[in-house]
């Protein structure tokens, strides 16, 4: 079924944005290794994305953005994921939130217009801060320890968020918190970065995606206006997943790690063509084993491309999609991406694991695909329970 929103979309010049992303990706790729080694945040990448108009790609046309849907946004994310997946991850979270704002009836119009306008006019990124030390991911249930206390003059927010991707550059936080009411409600509060009582603790020292700035953010009695409440409900009302958010999240996450796998594939092809062992007297590319392994890689990438493209297009066309189906896309694409890089490593041996070659970095980065919500076990359990009618 096609929704009215899908019929009402305006034509844009999305191919132009794809071309801009490809130009920027060439530069981002030259910086990625150094940011990875240092664990430094790529501020310059986001300045250039802003100047190229790519921060407002998913902002509606009515608010000055490009109005692109999931299909073109996923293509941009895949291009940038191939160059620098840390940058692509931060950007994907920003894109997701603007697509949700544009489609969700629960988002206050005044706030969504404000964030849209700021994204068009300058360097203003947003991300959701949901994960906590004790709670873990809220996708697995439980109430957050972060508390919003209502006063006559505003909400007072206190809590500790971890894995806050993009924290060094975010202008807005969407903070997952519970109220201190007799019957607590749970949901999102929009918090400007840098308010008194807000502190970023640089804890991110990870195996992969080292430049994503996914540090801890601590809120100590931070005051925000009463109308900063975005979508706060009874805990039971959150049991039904937000299909819009779930769908684009899985597609975009898949696009990032598919991009990493394609970077690994490209490096492998060059290696196989150029590596001439003395015992062989010819390039490794002439070996049937190398050709078969590369063919297996191509098959996985072809499946990924089809899954990402068709699922994103269905989303844009208003086809009714399920959260379970979205989870399968993420599981399949990210595991295919991991398998691609592992296959490349099996062909290259020590060369692939040397820090002087990018394949080692691609392997560390692609493994991060498995930890994003939804994790594989949750997806498989959900599918199994549904098949059993439980």
Automatic annotation (TrEMBL):
Source organism, top-level taxon: Bacteria
Molecular function, one GO term: oxidoreductase activity, acting on the CH-CH group of donors
Membrane in keyword set: no
Domain Acyl-CoA oxidase/dehydrogenase middle: 132-222
Start and end residues of each Acyl-CoA dehydrogenase/oxidase N-terminal domain: 22-95
Keyword line: Flavoprotein, Oxidoreductase
Annotated InterPro entries: Acyl-CoA_DH_C, Acyl-CoA_Oxase/DH_mid-dom, Acyl-CoA_Oxase/DH_mid-dom_sf, AcylCo_DH-like_C, AcylCoA_DH/ox_N, AcylCoA_DH/ox_N_sf, AcylCoA_DH/oxidase_NM_dom_sf, Mito_Isobutyryl-CoADH
Identification of the protein by name: Alkylation response protein AidB-like acyl-CoA dehydrogenase
Species of origin: Bradyrhizobium huanghuaihaiense
